[in-house]
Amino acid sequence: MKSLAIAVVALSMATTCSCSPTKDTVSPNGKISVSVYTEHSPNKKQGQAYFSINYLEGKSKKQIFSKAGLGLCTEQQRFADNLRLVSVSPPKAVSENYKMITGKRSHCTNKGIERVYQFENENKQTLKIAFRAYNDGVVFRYLLEDVETKPTFVTTELTSYPIPDGVNRWMQTYTNDYEGFFPLATNGESKEKHIWGYPALLEPQDSLFVLITEANIQHGNSGSRLYNGDQPDQYQVRMPDEKVAFNQTFTSPWRVLIIGSLADIVESTLVTDVSEPSKVENTDWIIPGASAWIYWAHNHGSKDFQLVKAYIDLAANMHWPYNLIDWEWDVMENGGTVQDAIQYAEAKGVKPMLWYNSGTSWIGPGAPGPLDRLNSKENREKEYAQLHKMGVAGIKIDFFAVDGAEMMNYYMDLLEDAAKYKLMINFHGATIPRGWQRTYPHLMTVEAVYGSEWYNNRPILTERAAAHNATLPFTRNVIGSMDYTPGTFSDSQHPHITSHGHELALPVVFESALQHMPDRPETYYALPDEVKAFLSELPTAWDDTKLLSGYPGMDVVIARRKGDTWYIGGLNGTNESRTLSFTPVFLTGSPKTMTLIQDGTEQKSFSIKSNVQIEDSEEHISIDCLPRGGFVAIIK
């Protein structure tokens, strides 16, 4: 009976599946390999296209994805279960070096191997899919060329990622503003709409991770998200637009899979590697830095000229280059106007930034202003020119609508026109970074995070902040600058129960080229001198980044370098005391000196140790942290 059963299984397979030959795309170091193929019954020439990814760890081959779906449909063409793989291009090396003004690394390399897989459907219509294998991941995109009917529309993308039950995942339920949590789960169940936002972090094998996102959205592209409402273990790429228009030629954004250890994930620059080079020639005016920010403590503070002056004074006293004047500055009162505030900032040596409503989401009754100054190109350029003339360094634009192609175009229009008038940009209530920080280097930061602003609105962050903060370095912050507005030592409307050491570590652990410091002036002035000096001198853009230890939701230790100085931040994401540790293997040269600022004996105190000698880069350094605690270390 046993041999008969085997024969029946073999016969069944032969009548349902025939896999076409393929050529793998392999990363430069040989660790990551992608197989692209079609499966069809023996009596058919066409079938469904898939890809699989394997990861070589030592002598062990681990599977990342098995049978991830591929395909695309337009109004006139269908590339689904009717495909035949007709050709595979020879492997082509991609090699590029580029510089970043913002982000986790100033010198980046884009090195991978590319193959283009060409498919035909039963009508001899052609679909190309370009795959690249990198040492830290895989990217792919769809290419349609010389489509006869114009204009036409992409209606469906059939990319799907198989994620079976039991796989650890940290995924955010999709919302327009990406302001949610990344809770650990082991299945695809959802109490809401089974729609998930990027990035999505998976652990398909023990200590081997994948982060799913997308990059290099161009004019005409829609953003996408993941949907598993049809099959809980299949996450399909879906666009918010029912139809995405194109004219003869269509190129999708890159679908991005960052693969490897948690260090590979956190340190990766793959999102910017595959994005378009900078479109801004002169970048001398783009200067990362810290900014005083009034909104967290005073929601309507920008209406009050005297309060605005106090925050400008704070920026000057703390040697922060910027002060952000938030919403409602257009109705400023109590002794001055926004023009007066700008002049006051200039006299103090502080560069002002201003808030704007994008005019696309919150535009009804009660919507805060200024409104309707950026929506049309004519109005936008007029406003930008006036701001530049007044000495405004940048703008924060808030409340964006859903990620359709029209909205993606609007983001890029805002950025392209801002470059003409040397205005740095901060998007709030907005989509996630998708590589634009390389193409438009004056895009300094993006919110798209459940940040400390939420202490204003709901009590939920009080209990969840520590674990959430220890998850963000492995999820949202991987893909680009994140305007969390970190480092609150007093309380807003709802209290925080993270320690002072935890809060002090956030501006190191969280990367943002504009780092908005949200607490009250009197709170900062009352901090110990060593802490004030640390916050005054802290860089906001980095030459290098290293993950030293951690696991999502539990803890994290990150080292970031600026010049010859390393800044290390550690977070305890748990409700128990915890010892965090690291080995400074990144250090080179003579013995170094470390300043350590860690939790004191209770939540709102510090313990400070100066001139700690580090003789050996192999030295193991351990720091005791309070529940929800943390530390910073500066090594020179």
Provide a descriptive summary of the structure in words.
The protein starts with a helix and ends with a strand. By secondary structure, the chain is of the alpha+beta class. It is built from twelve helices and 38 strands. Helix 6 runs parallel beside helix 7. The strands form six sheets. Strands 8, 9, 10, 11, 12, 14, 15, 16, 17, 18, 19, 20, 22 and 23 form a 14-stranded antiparallel sheet that branches. Strands 29-28-27-26-25-24-30 form a seven-stranded parallel sheet. It is globular, with a radius of gyration of 26 Å.
Sum up the structure in keywords.
636 residues, alpha+beta, 14-stranded antiparallel β-sheet, seven-stranded parallel β-sheet, 38 strands, 36% strand, globular
Kindly state the number of beta strands. Answer: 38
Strand content: 35-45%
Number of helices: 12
Overall radius of gyration: 26 Å
The pLDDT mean sits at: 94
Distance between the termini: 73 Å
Low-confidence residue ranges:
1-17
Main sheet characteristics = 14 strands, antiparallel
Helix content range = 10-25%
Morphology: globular
